[in-house]
Design a protein that fits this description.
InterPro entries: Polysacch_pyruvyl_Trfase. The protein is of the alpha/beta class. Helix content is 45%, strand content 15%.
Length: 401
Amino acid sequence: MKIGVFGNFGIGNFGNEATFAAMLDTLKRFRPDAELTCICTNPDQVRQDYGLQAVPLNTAGRSPLMRKLSNIWYAIEVVRKLDVLIIPGTGILNDYCAPPFGLPYTLFRWSLAARLCGTRLALVSIGAGPLHHGLTKWFVLRSAAMATYRSYRNEFSKNYLAGLGFDVSNDPVYPDLAFALPIPSAPPQAAPAQRLTVCIGAMHYQGWRGHLETDENIYETYLGKLRDFALWLLERGMRVQLVMGDERDWRAVCDLRQAISAARPSLPDDLVVVERAAGWQDAFRQLRAADIVVATRFHTLVFALMLGKPTISVGYSEYHAELIETMGLGGFAQHSESIDLEVLINQFSELSSNRAKYEPVIMQRAETARSMLADQEQKVMHRLFGQSSQPLGATKDVAVS
C-alpha cells in the first residue's frame, strides 16, 4: 500500500505540523506496512523531522509556461505510483496569502493527477474559505469535486462552499485533526504561582492578503492593541508570556516585547516571558503554564483548548469564533483587525473570575472532539481501505521529546 500525504508542511507552521503528525499517527496505527510519501512545501525539513520519504509540491522549469507543463507531468508521475492521496486538515481550501496560481492551482494540479491516475483522494477535516478571486474559486471547487471523501473542520467551511453552489450534502463536519494528538506530558507539579499567568499568542498578521499586499498599518494597529492589553495585565500584577504559532511569528513576539518595554522600561524581566518555540510540542509546553490564553492563530487556540485553558480568540476569520463557541466559550472572540480593548478586558475579567466554571466545560468539549475524530477515523479508513482501523488511544499525557 502506497499512501501520499499532501500539504503545506515543513514550513515552521505549528498548526500544519500538528495536523500532519495527527494523520501520520492514524496511518501508522492502521497501515504500519504502508509506504508513506509526503508531498509538501519543504521536503528536506519533513525528511529531517519525520524520517519519511518526501517530494516537493513543484518541480523546476526554465520558463513559467514550461514550469506549469512540467509540473502537471511531475504530479502525474508521482501520483500514479500511489494508491491513496490524503490531504489532512489545514485551511487548504482558502486563499490566505495565496494568489490563484500559488497553492490553489497546485492543489488543483495534484487533485487532477489523482483523478487521471485513478488514485483515491481524501480531504480530511479541511478548512475552506474565504476565497476572493474567481480563478481561485474555480481551482478550489474543481479540486474538492475530485475527492473520494471530504469532511470539514467547521460549519463555516461547509457552508462557505455550499454558498458557492458546491454540493456538500454528503460531507460531514468533524473537529480539527489536532484534537486527536496525545497531549505532551506535564512537568512535576510546582507550588501554585503567586501571580496569574496570561499567555498572549502574537502573530505576524498583516491582513488576509499578508505578504502579497503588505499592510504594516494593520500589523501595527493589531500589535498596539495587544501591547495595551499586556500593559493592563501587568499593571494589575499579572505575569505575561508571549507565545508564537509559526516561526514567522517570532518577529511579532519580539516586536510586542519591545513595545511593552518601551512603555514600561523599568519592568522586571521575569514579568514578561519570551521564549522561542521550535514546534507544536513547545507551544503546548508554554501554553500549559497559562491560566488564561488570548491568541490569534487558529491552532494556538486549539492547543490551549486541548489543555482546558479558558481562551479568548483575537483571530482573523469567522471560523476562529466558531471554534471558541463550539468549545463552550461563545462570546469570547473578536476579529484581529478590530480589537476593542475595553471589550477584551471585560472578556478577560469574566473568564479569570470564573475559571472553575469554564475549565471543565472546555475539557469535556475537547474530549468530545477527540471522540468525534475517532469516529471519523473509522469511516475514512473504511472508505479508503475497506477495513476498520485501530481505535484512538485513551486520552492521557504521553512524553514527547
